[in-house]
Amino acid sequence: MRLGLILGEVGQGFRRNLSMVISVILVTFISLTFFGAAILLQFQINQMKGYWYDRAQVAVYFCTDVSVEPSCNATEASADQIAAVKAQLDGTTLKPYIKHVDFENHQQAYENFKKQFAGTSFADLVTPEYLSQTFRVNMKNPGQAEIVIDQVKAMPGVEQVEDQRTLLDPIFSIMNAASYTAIGIAGLMLVAAVLLISTTIRLSAFSRRRELGIMRLVGASNRFIETPFILEGMLAALIGSVLAAGAIVAIVQFFVQGYLQQTIANTAFVTLTDALLVAPILVGVGMLLAALSASVAIRRYLKV
Fold first, then answer.
1. Looking at the chain, which terminus has fewer C-beta neighbours within 10 angstroms, N or C?
2. What does the pLDDT read at residue 153?
C-alpha cells in the first residue's frame, strides 16, 4: 500500500511538471552523451598510443649530395659509413634493445615517396638521389629510442636520427584537448541537469504543498514524504541516462566500427565492448546526481 502510494505520487509529479521533466531528460541525455564520448575518446587515445607507439621506428637518415647539414658537407654517405652504422646497430651494445632493422635505399625511398604523394605535382619534382638512404629501426621498447639515437647520431655519414614517436605527439595532444573540451562541456551540462532536477523537485513540492502539510499532520515521516520526489528526479535522469548509453553504443557500432574502421583499416578503434563498459557508468552517474540533487532540494528548500 505504501509503495503504491509513493508510485502514485511520482506519477502525479510527472504529470504536473511534464515540460520540466522532459527538459531534465534532454539535458541529462546530452550531458551524459558528451561525458561518455569523452571517456571513449580517452580509451581511443590510449589504444592508439599503444598501437602506433609500438610501431614507431627510429629512422637513421644518411647524407646525400644535397644535404644541408654541416656534418654532411653536401657529400653522399659512403658504403663504408653505412656499413659502420649497421655494425653499430648489430653490436652487443644496441642489439638487446632492437627488434629488427630494415634498410631503405634511394630507389625504395623514391617508390614509397611516390605512393605517399601520388597525384601531386610535388611527386614529379623529386628524383631518387634526393632522398636519403635510411635504416628503420624497430625497438623492443619504443621508450628506449634515445639509446639508439645517442649511439649513432654523431657517426660519419649520418644526416639525422629521428624518433618517429615525436611526430605522433602533436596528434595525441590535439585529441587530448578535444577530450578535455568534451569533459568540460559535459560538466557544465551536468550542472545544468542538477539545477533543473532541483527546480523540478521544488516546483513539484510547491504544487503539492497542501498534501504535504496534511501528510505531516497525520504523522508521515520525512523519509516517506521525500521518497516520491527523489524517485521523480531519479526516474527522469534514468530515462536520459539510458538514452545517452544507447547513443554511445549506436555511435560506436554504426559510426566507429561501421564507418571509421572500414575506412581506416590500419588503425585500432574502440569497440562495442568499450561502449558497453561505458554505458552502465553513464546510468550510474545520472542516477547518483539525480538522487543527490533531489534530496538536497527537498530538504533544504521545503524544510521537510
1. N
2. 87
